Every structure is written in structure tokens, then in C-alpha cells.
């Protein structure tokens, strides 16, 4: 039999293990992956909370374990649903202040993204200072990029750099990786010129590496400037890789300096760097600009011989060359070849041909191409639809235009707003008010607001046709989008 002391120790041992088990369930995402229902429950509690205390009590009474995985998913839900950022911050702070709990870098970055989108920059720095004191390792170069991207979107380059300097006291290591994050942000949110100017002003504070130069080498328009930058790279003892050389090849190809581009490719091989599909795609584009589409097609064969197989982008580059040269038979032949190789033409491929047919006013070929596109289950993008609807509008093909619209509604592709403007113009021109009303209502049912211009035109025609009931129905639908308001006599007034 157990003594009283042994029983006490056993109970204490079991109690401690139960506590550890509950802690793991409560805090650890690996042992407790959050269910969809749990995420929705917490998101609903957070979204309806009226105060900090209300949030705490509701979360405690819900019985849901607030694991890392669940918090990650709730904040992701907030981000993509554009929910209240202050409620999200309350939730983030409450969960983060629990003893022994640490937010994941994903949760931190998502919370900062949500605040940055709402331009709550002071609260961003408050969050970062709190995290610094609790778990500095959570602040990564990616965190820096998230914050700087939001700052750069609405502030000047100088203010962005000032925000970058603040991170010196926040991140564990304020090093070249952080510098690269700043440069990449400036490339994306400002301009390559801004990024390069900042590089030259700060490069003495950091040690630029290969990634630094690869960020800055892309997008050059001047071969002379690119060469100078490439030389600086070598002077600093940084050995170029395939990405570096591809940037140089690209700038030569865009400048139609094909001889120089081929010399760079030869140099790559001398340094045992195998040209990749991006290298060859740049060459193909350059040959097209130089008016040599047949030679560009030969590059596809050379790629295969080098063990580098063309992708869709490479084929698109060759097809573009033949479209520019108005050699559509060769373009179609290449599409067939792509499919035989197991590569499906994408919307970009089809748009190259749609553009040619649009400018040549060739509706028959354009419509056949659309049929081929749908048969291959490649959904058109907005550009494809615009080429088609404008051509149909020009030739007043109402039934075909309505078929395109119905395909869009059924399969969910294209921009309803842009396409509907052209479609409503066509329907109103030919007096198809019933069809215009139907398309209008289909659009509203999808949660898409017809443009004010389109609504005004339909309104005028309905008034002339004395279709007051239909007009009132459409006006009420537009009122849901804040467009129309009702006057004292019951008539709908259109906002200017």
C-alpha cells in the first residue's frame, strides 16, 4: 500500500503533468492544430468585443485553447477580411501577455501588416518595443520588410530610411540582411533609382553581399550604368552568380545589343555557370526586338540541347515575336508544340493573339481563339475579356457579348466593372434594356457595383421607355452601394 507521503508525491506528479499537458494544448500549435470552427469562434468573439475586459471574459468562457496555430489563423482571417485593426490589436496583446506564451513571427508580422494598412504607425512601434522586451528573436528581416513596405507606400524615401534606422535598437542583428530588406522594399514600393541612391548613401555602414547586388541589378535600362554597377560588385570581391549575369544579359537584350548579350552567356559558361531558362528567355526577347523571330525559335532547340527545357514564359517570348511579325501560323504552331510538351498556354499566351485580332478587327479568329481557350480550361483574364468585348461592341454582336458575360458570371473570371461598362454601352445602343437590366442585377448579386456612368445611361433609357418599376428596382440596388438617395417625394436622386 502507498504511504500518505507517496500518495501526495504521486498526486503532485500527476498534477504537474496535467498542467504541462494543458500548457502544451493551450500554447503549442503542433499538438493542437486549430479547427475552422475554433478560428471562427475566436474571430467572432474578437470582432464583437466592446472592451478589453469583455474580450478576456468572452475568450475565457469560450473554452477554446488559444494556441499559436489558432492565433496565426485568426490574425490571417483579420487580414484578409479587413476586420477592425484595433480589435485585432486587443486580441494580439491579450494573448501575448499570458505568462510563458510567445507569439510566432508569423503572428507578429501579420499584426504589423494589419496596423500598417490602416496607417497606425505609432501602434506599430509600440508593438515592436513590447516584443523587443519579451522575445527579440521574433523580429526578423521579414518583419522589417512588412513595416517598411507600409511606411514606404505613404511616406517619402527619407521617412522610410528613418524608419529603417529605428530597427537598429529592435532587431537582434542590424546587419546586411536588414539592409537588403530596405533595398528590396524601396525597389517594390518606390523605384529602382531610389533604392540605388539609398544604397550609395548607406553602403559604408554595411557589407554588401551577393544578394544586395542582385536586388539592385534588376531593371536597368542603361547598359552603361549596369556595367558600372557590375564592376563595383567585382571590386568589392563579390562573385556574380547566374542571377547577376541574367540581369546583365537582360539589359543588353532590351537595348538590342545581342553581341554583348551572347558574350555574357559565353562568360557564364567559362565560369561554370549554366545559363538557365531566364537567360534564354531574355535572349529570345532580344532577338525578337532585333527582328529575328526565326533565330529566336532556334534558341528553344539550343536550350534543350543544353539540358534546359523551355517553360511557358520562354514559349510566350517566341510567340510574341511571331505575333509582332504577323506570322500567326508560326505562333499557332508553337502553341500546339507547347501542348504536345505538356505545357498549357496561359492567358498571356492567348492575349498575344487577341491583341493582333483586335487591331485587325478579326472577330471570327478572336472568337475561335476564345473557344479554344475555354475548351482548354484556361480562364481568360480581364485583358482577354476587354479585347473581346470591345471587338464585339465595335461590330454590335449582342448575342456573343451576352455569352461572354454569362461565361464570366458562371465561371468567375474577368473584371465585372470594366467589362460591364462596354457591355452596357452596347446593350443601350441597340435598345436591349431587358438584357441590360438582367446583367445589372447579375452584377449586383455578385457584390459588384456597376459604374455610375453605366447606371445613369440605363436610367435615362428606362425613363424614356416609362419603365418606372424597373428603374426603382435598379435604384434601390445602387442605394446599397451608397450611390442613390431618396428625396422627400419618394423619387430617387442620383449622387454626383
Automatic annotation (TrEMBL):
Listed InterPro entries:
Mito_RNA-Proc/Resp, PPR_rpt, TPR-like_helical_dom_sf
Q: Which Pfam families match?
A: PPR (PF01535), PPR_2 (PF13041), PPR_3 (PF13812)
NCBIfam families the UniProt entry points to: PPR
Ordered alphabetically, the record's keywords are:
Repeat
Molecular-function GO terms, alphabetical: mRNA binding
Species name: Ficus carica
Gene3D superfamilies listed in its UniProt record = Tetratricopeptide repeat domain (1.25.40.10)
UniProt family annotation: Belongs to the PPR family. P subfamily.
Could you tell me what this protein is called? Pentatricopeptide repeat-containing protein
**PPR repeat coordinates:** 241-275, 276-310, 311-345, 346-380, 381-415
